[in-house]
Write a structure and sequence with these properties.
Length: 379
Amino acid sequence: MAGDYYEILGVPRTATKEELKSAYRKMARKYHPDVNKDNDAEERFKEINRAYEVLSEPETKARYDRFGEAGVSSGGGSGGVGFDPNDMGGFADIFETFFGGGFGGGGGTATGPRRRGPTRGDDLRLDLTLEFREAVFGGEKEIKIPHLETCSTCNGSGAKKGSSAKTCGTCNGTGQVRRATRTPFGSFAQVSTCPTCNGEGQIIEEKCESCGGQGTKQVNKKLKITIPAGVDTGTRLRVSGEGDAGSRGGPSGDLYVYLSVKTDPHFKREGNNILSELSISYLQAILGCRIDVPTIDGDHKVTIAAGLQPNTVLTLEDKGVPKLGNSVSRGDHLLTIKIDIPTKINSEERELLEKLAQIKGEHTSKRGFEGFFESIFHK
Ligand SMILES: [Zn+2]
Ligand SMILES: [Zn+2]
């Protein structure tokens, strides 16, 4: 194909969308093969259509403006411009917390009406359950994912070794066929996907035996991923490039790991805070004490002041969950103190407590049921 797309349509490079459209209409009418019987009319008509096809889409127009034809043709060598077909080697973990759904679940990426040329692989989803502590402290985790990888036998071309894909004869490699349809309202150029090559623009005559001509293979891959400290149920990790392989040299999709976290018998989690309860005796509450409290870092000594009231919440600062993406900052441990009232006391204890009640001038029942039995059996 020859000529600048703007020149073909006869508009300046600064033309607006409307100007492009009306120029296209004018030119298309003039060179329509049904109207114009000049020898080169059909060729011109094709050029006009191609030029407008590219310039009418903001995305392809931008690429054409920057790179010229090379930016919008998909036949050339190492994949079109705008993709990075290089295997990135390794991967980056990026975490993001999402609320609610909104993920397509491997539904594929929008590729527009044309499917030829390099196509990005699908994104994949993996659900992963973590132990309570794994989520709090993070760490490495081995996962296994079934995904598509580029076939190593044919390097993704789908063609048998020694052979190569041929340009489709039906559509001359464009992946589309055009037909002029006559209606009472005039003639229209109807564009549809080429039935011979399914829009690929290329035909594989001898298929690669390893992948059956697909260019990709389903593989179960073992992968080590890094779980950052502080993740929670609902956190989504993106492992870039570990989704399905792209086709025709297109980049791979990403793998999204959706996390859910198991509960713990001792600790509850509320955001970055850890919640737990601790029971002390009524004597410890009245007299005060120093006591070991289990935290996610291990036992931590806590001073209970004399006269502590039931259900008091003590804050152990920085003993909570590390904040996601912030290695220094942590939440707190909120400790609710429960006070045990004994259901049984022995006679010596009872004596002392009765004496205490006398001092305080409080009325108490003299001997409980238990005391009665004790007096029977111990006399
Ligand atoms: Zn293959
Ligand atoms: Zn074709």
